């Protein structure tokens, strides 16, 4: 097999075999095939795409490049959720304990934040004492005993993805549905779950700008998972406003706890219940989605999910008292309000800019080596669809550095688009991609 | 300027500025931009193409990567001809002396053969004593004194092309009109000619398979040359049969001498007269193409071109007696005829296979490091359009190794497509691309 001939085949729109895909990925990871040939191959994929089968071959080849997490000693159904990245997305913090309380095993590998999006690990580390590094034995033991553990991704998981992503990043080949889908799904599948539910975001704060694009990505990922023997579903959700109110690590932990207590933001609570309902159904804990959601609602309302959260935090060394005593969490020194300069309906929010504003305060990283300031962030009291009078508080800035506040205030104010007429309603959940295909969301 | 953003622009079909193109090519040649980014860029060009202006920017940036040949001390109009590579193409051997006899200066850098096509340098080196390495001073002096010198390309001419071509070769990005055009034209322009006439081949023995493809390439090259201040024209010629009869180095020298004596194959003679006519017109030696061709015909018929050939050979150390005493040229030990196995009209010839058959005999190189056997090759007495009886001699194999002959015989025989009806006539010259655009050839 010659590498340049395989590139030429893809360039001409021909379909590659499993062996050809393996040859490229395996050769690349082993250093037998140079970066420049894979760069040309990735650009050819950008233009010619990959079929469903080719995308599965690629994903399998990527998974085979490294270790798979061995969860064979974990009893019961293992489920995982993945979000394509949003602003204020603290879903994992609520959903994990919620489904674990329902008997699902959550052996989760999470990431850190970069740019305008935050990361679950950073958020958890704002809880005093919380450890995100567990030994493989401790990880499996916690999952078996409590039903949940959350750690950082190990270095040996899908090395092909690390190498390919670094190359895509500098060769303008990031924005390709099959490449994004295989990158995400290779890691999810290597992490060992049986049930995988995806939250594919679209809108101003998401990577995918339109619902159609998100649907295509969701479809590609669901097909990969099904092709590789997983139970799959993907919700397509709107990111034209932050999820919940809080953006920033400790602020989001607090909001997650509120949600576990049953008094969280409606959008966040709703999304978590729907994701949990789908997981319970796919895992065989409920006969259909509706009864799965009712199961989740019951676990939340009778405090079982909150109890599980406490156990989970304690098991990883964190102070479970943060649940009752919120000021055990890091807090910023200063608070400043951002007030509406005109009256009217909030028609839209530049959600990405809000994420970047929080990053500027120290809640996120502009490069991988930046450190996180856990206490800072934003709370957006008003969101898209709300009516405001001039002078109403739109958001609260939590800062540790007064000098940044003017710039951040301006950024936050500019990210609110206020008009005289109300916006068209855009539901949080646009639709779902299941084994049977796409369905518009009916609630 | 960020490299990945320029790649992304081209990927999205946007138009690059001169500065952006320079940034990439200059950075690449200096080693500041890695192969993998340029590989992705080349694949993006494969899909999105380049505008006329972008192609000129690319060509200029490539020229600026190295030295330009300084022909300022050469008096008179400097002309160059380039063929995109065919089988049995000995045009330069006839055309060079012919236009030099007409007062045009020919300061030619030629190449070596690879694969199924031969190279002018290899052909000239079959003349005993001939040197293709001259010092820059000797080169310019010969051009000034005799009007013609032919040498190998210097290492410092367009280093960007060497680097880009090597990368294209292994990334499936060779077949792109703007990339082919800029590769050829950068070298031609850096070599210093004022008038450049191109012979763009199409058909079974050429890189471009159809007349339309050849027209596109011719058009791109003419526009680059015009954009960079050169007098330009490109003939589009058919390569569905070898040019002339002979394929192989010394055999082609002999045929070129025959042509200079006025007794060469009609197609070769015609092509040389037409190319010369266009050059004389563009160089201002004739008021129009027809009188340019008449000038060439006169120079040929009264022996001036042959005299110039003798001088040229002698000036580069070669034995000029080969003109009169053909067996001073290397000759193969064995000759074998290939006979028609059926009667009928030769409808087509697999010209590329004939080139490869000659290569197998030793007349060409399958890799850069192979050595050439000057005496071997093929003479195709019968060509497309001819009628043959069963048993007629189609071609003569000139070989030094008897063991190869059976295989070569089979290859030659299979490359003749003989049918019961005559083929549609395909003229040697399909058309011409000039400053005013494309014109179908009227003879």
Strand and helix map with partners:
2 copies of one chain form a homodimer.
Chain A: H1 3-11, H2 18-29, H3 35-48, H4 52-63, E1 79-83, H5 91-101, E2 106-110, H6 120-124, H7 136-146, E3 148-152, H8 159-170, H9 177-190, E4 195-202, H10 211-227, E5 231-238, E6 246-247, H11 249-260, H12 266-282, H13 289-301, H14 304-315, E7 334-339, E8 344-349, H15 351-361, E9 377-380, E10 387-388, E11 393-399, H16 405-415, E12 416-419, E13 429-434, E14 437-440
Parallel strand pairs in A: 1-4, 2-3, 4-5
Antiparallel strand pairs in A: 5-13, 6-9, 7-11, 8-10, 8-12, 9-11, 13-14
Helix pairs in contact in A: 1-3, 2-4, 4-9, 4-10, 5-11, 5-12, 5-14, 9-10, 12-13, 15-16
């Amino acid at each position: 097999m010659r590498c340049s001939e395989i590139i030429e085949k893809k360039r001409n729109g021909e379909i590659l075999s499993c062996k050809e895909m393996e040859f490229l990925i395996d050769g690349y990871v082993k250093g037998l095939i140079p970066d420049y040939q894979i760069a040309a191959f990735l650009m050819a994929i950008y233009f010619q795409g990959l079929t469903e089968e080719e995308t599965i071959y690629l994903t399998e080849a990527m998974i085979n490049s490294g270790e798979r997490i061995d969860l064979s000693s974990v009893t019961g159904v293992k489920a995982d959720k993945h979000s394509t990245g949003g602003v204020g997305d603290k879903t994992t913090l609520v959903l994990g304990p919620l489904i674990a309380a329902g008997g699902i095993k959550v052996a989760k590998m999470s990431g850190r934040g970069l740019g305008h999006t935050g990361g679950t690990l950073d958020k958890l580390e704002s809880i005093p004492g919380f450890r995100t590094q567990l030994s493989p034995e401790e990880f499996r033991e916690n999952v078996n005993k409590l039903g949940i553990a959350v750690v950082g991704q190990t270095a040996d998981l899908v090395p092909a993805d690390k190498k390919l992503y670094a190359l895509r990043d500098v060769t303008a080949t990031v924005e390709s549905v099959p490449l994004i889908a295989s990158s995400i799904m290779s890691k999810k599948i290597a992490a060992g779950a049986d049930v995988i539910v995806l939250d594919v975001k679209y809108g101003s704060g998401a990577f995918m700008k339109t619902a159609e694009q998100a649907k295509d990505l969701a479809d590609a990922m669901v097909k990969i998972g099904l092709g590789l023997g997983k139970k799959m579903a993907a919700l397509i959700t709107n990111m034209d406003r932050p999820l919940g109110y809080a953006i920033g690590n400790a602020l989001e932990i607090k909001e997650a706890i509120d949600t576990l207590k049953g008094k969280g933001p409606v959008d966040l609570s709703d999304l978590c219940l729907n994701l949990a309902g789908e997981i319970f159904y796919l895992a065989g804990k409920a006969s259909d989605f509706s009864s799965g959601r009712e199961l989740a609602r019951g676990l939340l309302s009778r405090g079982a999910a909150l109890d599980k959260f406490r156990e989970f935090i304690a098991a990883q060394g964190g102070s479970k008292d943060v649940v009752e005593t919120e000021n055990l969490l890091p807090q910023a020194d200063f608070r400043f309000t951002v007030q509406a300069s005109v009256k009217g309906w909030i028609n839209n929010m530049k959600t990405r800019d809000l994420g970047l504003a929080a990053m500027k305060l120290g809640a996120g990283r502009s490069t991988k080596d930046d450190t996180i300031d856990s206490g800072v962030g934003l709370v957006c009291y008003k969101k898209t669809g709300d009516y405001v009078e001039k002078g109403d508080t739109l958001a609260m800035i939590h800062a540790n550095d007064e000098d940044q506040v003017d710039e951040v205030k301006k950024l936050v104010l500019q990210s609110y688009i206020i008009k005289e007429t109300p916006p068209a309603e855009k539901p949080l959940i646009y639709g779902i991609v299941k084994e049977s295909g796409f369905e518009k969301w009916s609630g």
